[in-house]
Structures are given as structure tokens and as C-alpha cells.
Amino acid sequence: MENTIALRKWLDDLKLAHPLVIAGPCSAETEEQVMGIAHALKDTDVNYYRAGIWKPRTRPGNFEGVGAIGLKWLQRVKAETGLKTATEVANRNHVDLALEHDIDLLWIGARSTVSPFIVQEIADALKGTDKVVLVKNPVNPDLSLWLGAIERLRSANIKKLGVIHRGFSTYEKTKYRNIPEWQIAIELQSRFPDLPLINDPSHITGQRDLIFDVSQTALDLNFDGLMIETHTNPDKAWSDAAQQITPERLVQIMRDLRIRKETDQEAEYRQNLSNLRAQIDVIDNQLIDTLGKRMKVADAIGSLKKQRNVAVLQTNRWNTILGKMILEGQEHGLSEEFVLKMFKAIHQESINHQETIINS
């Protein structure tokens, strides 16, 4: 991706002393609701007021947004509060209406990013626009698909471009609504450090109590900003009630998270060190999660061995695994001594799990 510095210019022009903040309700519900939230956010760190006008829903019958009338409410938000406005678009008609109502920031949702046809239609409709355009990661963990959407928009001569990391769908039950898969965002960031990267902790967590922690991780990983769903009465929201927070809570979070940029070399060193340590923290959490999954498989093996009255230790199987892991470790720059120590410890823990089951 050439000339990526141009992609960041819209963000640098804001000259922010804090991360970029995009906040507002998941859905525009009524004009009164939209304006009440906007006035509550008017004198805060919020830079863009977001509200879903068209809401893609997996199954029919759920609230799918108020439609174009909500764009008039966003116009009133800008006129009365001075906040710039943002909404999601999913087709050419949405784009045309959003541009007609002078919406400042448009984002492409995770469900749309998965379809090159949809992205191309939106790119054609936005060709040459000076509006900010952000692309959410696709619902499935596919970096190339995410980057493909960016490339289509760049080919349409859209300069004010960025991405939103909102996590990825999974069939597994986790504490998150959408698992972060931080390594994918880190990979995107390492390839294109000048591409503005926004985190959406609301959709990652699916619950308001985890928003602060995910936001802090994102900032530690050098994200440029946050998109946080905010509602004056979250529990009564018409969509995604559990993940929305009050304006007061948003203010407190931003106060606690605020990072002021320093310019000296020592500050740069600390920032780089903090970023690398945050990456290690993410990987360490993934290691623990993976080891936990491995032990659940070991438990299942223990149950099978108990049913068939088979010994826990299978020496041939163990030697085969060890030899294979030593070779794979060498390909990743890991010493034989380290791989032996690590897998002996893992193997012993697996044996302990299986013996507990067999002897129960």
C-alpha cells in the first residue's frame, strides 16, 4: 500500500491530545434519544458522534434501524453540538443518502467487509470523497480479506481511510462476544504503521464491564482511537443493550485511559517498550488459553483410557511428539533444550490430568 502517510493525515490534522473517540448509541431510536445522548457527549473527549441508522440483523424480525429519517437527526446533532457525525453504510443507496446529509465519517461493517462485491459497490459510490471512511475487520479472522477491502477503497481515491478492529466471530464460548485475535490487528499495524487503527471494545466484549480493559490493551498496542457505544439508558436500548455504557462512564474511562504524547527520545523508547510488552501480554494470554484447551483434550483422552483400562503413559506416542516438536522448534528459532523443558512440563501436566480422571 503506497503513500500510506496520506491515510493518516485526517487523523493528524485533528491534533488530538488524547486518542480519537467515536461514541454514541448502537442504534438511533428516536430523535429525542439521539439528541439527549449528543448533548451529554458535547463537552467530552468525543470527536465523532456515531449512531446506527441501518442495522444489519442476522435474523428477520429484529429492529433493523429507523432508516433515512435518522440522518436528519444526525444533522441536528452537528448543528446543535458541533460534534462531527458517523454512521454505517452497507450499499450505494446508504452512501448516497449519507453524503446528501453531510455525514462526516462512514464505516463499513464486519458483515459487509466479507463481500468484495459490497465493498466495491461502496467504493464506487464514494469515489474521490473527502469524507473519512473506516473499514471494520470481517467477521471471520482473515487479514487478506480486510486488506482487500482497504485496497478497493484506495483504488477509488479515498484518502481519509482507516480501519476498525471489532473482534472476530467464533463458535467457541469465551468471555468475549467476539474474540479479539489481537495478533491479526498487530500484523496489520506492523505492515502498515501509518494506517489509522481504531478499536471497538463494545463489539469485542459484548458487555460493558470489560470495555475498560480491552480499551487499555488497545492503547497499549498503539491503537489510534476507540469506538464505544454510549447510551443515556443502556439497559433500555433497542439493540446491544449489554455492551453500551452511559456518557458518565465514558468520561471516566477516557479520563483513566488518556495518554498524552511526548516528543523526546525517552518517551519514544517508553512507548515502543510498552507496545512490545503489550504484544507479549497478548501472546501470553493466548498461550494460557491454548494450554487450557490442550488439557481439556487430555481430560477427554483420560476418560477414554479409563473406559478401556489403558495405561496413562504411552511411550512411543510421547517420543514421536517430542521429536516432531524439537524439529518444529528449530524452525522457529527455539533451542532443543527449551523445547524439551517446555514439552516435558506440558506432558507431565497432561499425565496429572489423566491420572486424576483414571483414579477418580
Automatic annotation (TrEMBL):
EC numbers for this chain: 5.4.99.5
First and last residue of the signal peptide: none
Residue stretches in coiled coil: 259-286
Broad class of enzyme this protein falls into: isomerase
PROSITE patterns linked to this entry: CHORISMATE_MUT_2
Short name of any one Pfam family annotated for the protein: CM_2
Keywords per UniProt: Coiled coil, Transferase
The UniProt record lists the keyword Calcium: no
Protein's UniProt keywords contain Cell inner membrane: no
Domain Chorismate mutase: 267-358
Protein name: chorismate mutase
Organism annotation: Robiginitalea aurantiaca
